[in-house]
Amino acid sequence: MAHEHGNLPLCDSHEAHHEIIDSISLPEDEHFFCLAEFFSVMGDSTRIKILYLLFEGEMCVCDISEKLSMSMSAISHQLRILKDARLVKYRKIGKSVLYSLDDEHVKTIINMGVEHIEE
Fold first, then answer.
1. Quick check: 60 and 50 in contact, CB under 8 A?
2. Which of 14, 57, 61, 89 has the fewest CB atoms within 10 Å around its CB?
3. Predicted confidence band at 12 (pLDDT cuts at 50, 70, 90)?
4. Burial of 30 (0-12, 13-18, 19+ CB in 10 A)
5. Smallest Cα–Cα separation from 57: which of 104, 115, 12?
6. pTM of this prediction?
């Protein structure tokens, strides 16, 4: 039998609290799959560094490569993953390709993560 303590039921049995679980609706599984994929892409420190660099504006692969002391092919590979996840976008100027954050949400998400770990 559950006992109330404030608004939280306390468990003293192995019975579910149906008044709680019945009031909660979850999105479709596809929603959670996409969210997990998003966090998987964000779960790489090199990709986070690239996104952090792009806070300041557009950069080309060679500049990102130089700043992170990594090969241009390694940076290109990471940028392709970020582009596929819609975290970065690019534009071409002649033969040059400039990368930038896809939108302000990306910066907000990273800043919120920084706030959380610095608490």
1. no
2. 14
3. low
4. exposed
5. 104
6. 0.81
What letters, b where the CB count within 10 A reaches 16 and e where it falls short, cover 83-108?
eebebbeeeeeeeeebbbbbeeebee
pLDDT tens digits, one per residue of 45-86? 999 999 999 999 999 999 999 999 999 999 999 999 999 999
Using an 8 Å Cβ cutoff, are 50 and 13 in contact? Answer: no
Q: What single-letter amino acid sits at 60?
A: C
Sign of CA dihedral 84, 94, 73, 98: negative
The answer for residues whose C-beta is within 8 angstroms of residue 17's C-beta and 6 or more apart is 2, 9, 11
